[in-house]
Amino acid sequence: MIKTVIIEDEKPAARKLERMLSLFPDLQLVANLESVEEAVSWFEDNEHPQLIFSDIVLGDGLSFDIFEKISTKAFIIYTTAFDQYTLKAFKLNSIDYLLKPIMEEDLSGAIEKFKSFIPSDQSVNSQEIKQLIKKEKTTLSRILVKIGYNLKIVQTSEISCFFSENKIVYLQTQDRVYPSEFTLDELTDVLDDKKFFRVNRQFIINSDYIKNIHTSPNYKVELNFQPKEEITVSRERVKDFKDWLVN
């Protein structure tokens, strides 16, 4: 049995996740914790689980605070409604990052991903498993954006490009432009590099939306949906750009 802990301060969300996890007979829920303080105390007094499902924003702080105080070998799947913590979660080598409301297929995929790191013959120690996680690039599949007082989930497959303007990074879709809380450097690290390519300091483009490529006098890309600015491939990136197009 895989010992599992939930860290979630919203009782309805915790109950829903507990019901969803009950569909996986090899998972054994050993604790349901509600705060940073409670979690730190529990981890100090109890045997650590193999898997943790943790919300990020808790009533008394961020769950990151727990793991800065407590060293654990458990693998963490973060759950949250806020996109601004995505990059920090990735940098902490989490197994996965699930945006609320959690979909059953996304949860199942995250659990299967966790199981793929567990050796069947116990020949790989926990430190080696951590190294395997570091080598696997986790890609961002959706982004939460704010529209006034509302939140909207945008799939990265719907985004033709990301671009920076006046120190803000925007994402372009067929319908409109949305501001994000990422930097282009951060996005470069977590986007699927088979689909997305940073052509210059201002733009990251999605290959699925390339309409035309001009090669003279310089490389210029036209997308099906893009802002008014021209998208030019910087000279030092041209070779990598051409290689990316055919890979």
Distinctive features:
247 residues, alpha/beta, 5-stranded parallel β-sheet, 5-stranded antiparallel β-sheet, 8 helices, elongated, DNA binding, DNA-binding
Mean pLDDT: 86
Number of distinct helices: 8
Rg of Cα set: 21 Å
Quote the beta fraction. 25-35%
Question: Which spans have pLDDT < 50 for at least 5 consecutive residues?
Answer: 121-130
Give the fraction of residues assigned to helices.
25-40%
> Strand order within the widest sheet?
2-1-3-6-7
Would you write up a description of this structure?
It is elongated, with a radius of gyration of 21 Å. The strands form five sheets. A five-stranded parallel sheet has the order 2-1-3-6-7. The chain is 29% helix and 30% strand. It contains eight helices and 17 strands. β4 and β5 (61-62) form a beta hairpin.
Short précis:
This is LytTR family DNA-binding domain-containing protein. With 247 residues, this protein is an alpha/beta fold. The chain has helices at residues 11-21, 36-45, 64-69, 86-91, 104-116, 126-135, 184-190, 238-246, and strands at 2-7, 27-33, 51-55, 57-58, 61-62, 75-80, 96-99, 142-147, 150-155, 161-165, 168-172, 177-179, 196-198, 203-206, 210-214, 220-223, 231-232.
Helix and strand arrangement:
Elements (H helix, E strand, L loop, with lengths): L1 E6 L3 H11 L5 E7 L2 H10 L5 E5 L1 E2 L2 E2 L1 H6 L5 E6 L5 H6 L4 E4 L4 H13 L9 H10 L6 E6 L2 E6 L5 E5 L2 E5 L4 E3 L4 H7 L5 E3 L4 E4 L3 E5 L5 E4 L7 E2 L5 H9 L1
Parallel strand pairs: 1-2, 1-3, 3-6, 6-7
Antiparallel strand pairs: 4-5, 8-9, 10-11, 10-14, 11-12, 13-14, 15-16, 16-17
Organism: Chryseobacterium terrae
Protein name: LytTR family DNA-binding domain-containing protein
Keywords: DNA-binding, Phosphoprotein
